[in-house]
Amino acid sequence: MEHYILTLRCADQPGIVRSLAEGIVQAKGNITESAQFSDPPTGLFCMRTSFESPEDDTDAIRSLVAGAVHRFQPTLTLRRESIRRRVLVMASRFDHCVRDLLYRWDIGELPADLQLIVSNHETCRPLAERYGLPYHHIPVSAATKPEAERRLLDLVAEHEIDVVVLARYMQVLSDEACRKLEGRAINIHHSFLPGFKGSRPYHQAYERGVKLIGATAHFVTPDLDEGPIIEQDVARVGHGHTPEQLVAIGRDVERLVLARAVRLYVEDRVLLVGARTVVFG
Known about the structure:
Number of helices: 8
Strand order of the largest sheet: 7-6-5-8-9-10-11
CATH class of the largest domain: Alpha Beta
CATH superfamily of the largest domain: Formyl transferase, N-terminal domain
Number of domains: 2
Largest sheet: 7 strands, mixed
Radius of gyration: 21 Å
Distance between the termini: 24 Å
Order of helices and strands: EHEEHEEHEHEHEHEHEEHEE
Oligomer: single chain
């Protein structure tokens, strides 16, 4: 039996689930997991379904399912589960998020194919070499940024990348790059933004006596750090924590939140609905 993952998004109306199920039956499919959500503000219906079938022709199955739901004019994706999402990871000097993703991938916990690492520094090269991944050092300055982004987009196309993960990549992508990667670039940042901007947010948080620190994983958009949110988490802290301890706690939250977000994405559990996301856990 082959296992497939299907997602569907369309205007909410009666008959969608029934029609989709009929299409899966036509493909000799048996549904093993299904989740759905109707979003009143947008009027959109979202669905994620896993099913198994003895048929191994993905295009034929897609044709049957698409034909069954054609009248709803859906946005539909279908993927054989064994064909994993291809990931490009970007990093700068901080390596805690990269290390965590590589470890989870190495032990089989992250169901994706990590293809390469791109960085504006050489810091993470030994880490990439340890895991046998290609490492592309692309320095970025105001003068070289357009060429650096062209090289990045060329790598995305060359390696047929499904998602770009900014694992504490400390460069802001241009509006053009954000638009070209719309819906397939994920960033991680500390949840102090926009309250604590700059290079030392945890020290600013210490000075203000915060009681919660956290992190947010979101899609990259031209609006800096305001893209649709995929995953968030927080940790409680107190007056006795030093700035260095806040940094350490923050690192833990950042890597956990990013890993969850990437896993949700590569399992096709994240659907965009306007400026929000529907996340099927």
